[in-house]
Amino acid sequence: MNCGELYNNNGGNFFMIAAVLEAPRRMDLREVEDPVCPEGGLLMKVEASSICSTDIKMYERGQRDLVYPRILGHEISGVVFEEDGAGLQVGDRVQIYPGVYCGSCPYCRRKTENLCEGIRIIGFNLDGGFAEYLSVPEQSVKNGSVNPIPDGLDFEEAALAEPLGCCINSQEMARVQDGDSVLIFGAGPAGLLHAMLARLRGASVVAAAETLDSRARLARSSADLVVNPDRDDLFYLGMDLTGGRGFDVIILASRDVPVASELFSLLAPRGRISLFSGLPPDLASASLDFNRLHYREHMIVGSYGCTPAQNRKALELISGGMDVRRLITERVSLRKIWRGMEHARGRRGLKAVVTDFG
């Protein structure tokens, strides 16, 4: 099967439908020339591309790794449509790790490929999955970024391996382990993935702080305590839940939480704070009491994206029974992608997924 089998709509040139972001708040659904199957790589027919909060951020105001014009979408699964010596078969079901890394820099050699000095990212500075077809470069194939989808797992579930991989990175950095008490700020899709993952990693107590009542209700099946910090006394309830120790780990799965002294008052000695979400400029610079970190041995750790190994681990967890399907609250066609974007932007539910690309 070759690229010529994509539909022809203009005198011999071949076109597909894609959602193209031209500039902040300028995304057009239009025909673009079909992608080329790269030498040593593959061409994938996209079957599911979920909408991430980062896609909303890029649509509204850009992002440091974004290059315009761009087809967004980095949580992607589909079917091999064409391959050029990639070692895969046409028709194979695959999920894509979006980082295209060099494999040879110091960070890649340490297996921290998400920090690669020359990384390119599908959906950021390479075209992504809000389109009928996706070109996957040889580098991704050679470096193990094309992951077979296990039998019994559908495309929608597989597409959520990448965001779950990001949660794995965060929790590995924060060393979530047996017996830990964990507080998660934000009960959106990432927050709920964090809650489920913390349980799998052995956390004895999981709490969530969420101001949106509809999301707080959904979090109750995954957390021992759900608090609205705008109405409830989070410090009192958190200390009561942890027997006065405070939490071993606090994960910021929300962009709206300042890293301030109030946050550290919730931490147990040797507690860790994970900066999972990027912060807006007005919250990114904080004044901290470093003596508190010194005397109580507190730690702050960042996490950005995930490694290919963490992405593969996420796919294994989902295949092993981790219920990510309940996070999907909206399915849209590519032609109705604005409905999915608004579902995510307005926090009307949890995860919106593009599933129809015709």
Give an account of the 3D structure.
The structure is a single chain. This protein folds into 2 domains: 213 residues, Quinone Oxidoreductase, Chain A, domain 1; 128 residues, Rossmann fold (3-Layer(aba) Sandwich). It is built from 13 helices and 19 strands. Helix content is 28%, strand content 28%. It is an alpha/beta fold and 358 residues long.
Descriptive terms for the model:
2 domains; Quinone Oxidoreductase, Chain A, domain 1; alpha/beta; Rossmann fold; seven-stranded mixed sheet; 358 residues; globular; six-stranded parallel sheet; 13 helices; disordered N terminus
Low-pLDDT stretches: 1-12
How far the N terminus sits from the C terminus, by CA atoms, comes to 19 Å
Main β-sheet description: 7 strands, mixed
* Domain unit count: 2
Query: What's the overall geometry?
Result: globular
The chain-level mean pLDDT equals 93
Measured as a percent range, the helix fraction is: 25-40%
Report the structural category: alpha/beta
Keywords: Metal-binding, Oxidoreductase, Zinc
Domain Enoyl reductase (ER): 19-354
InterPro entries: ADH-like_C, ADH-like_N, ER, GroES-like_sf, NAD(P)-bd_dom_sf, Zn_alcohol_dh
Organism: Candidatus Methanocrinis natronophilus
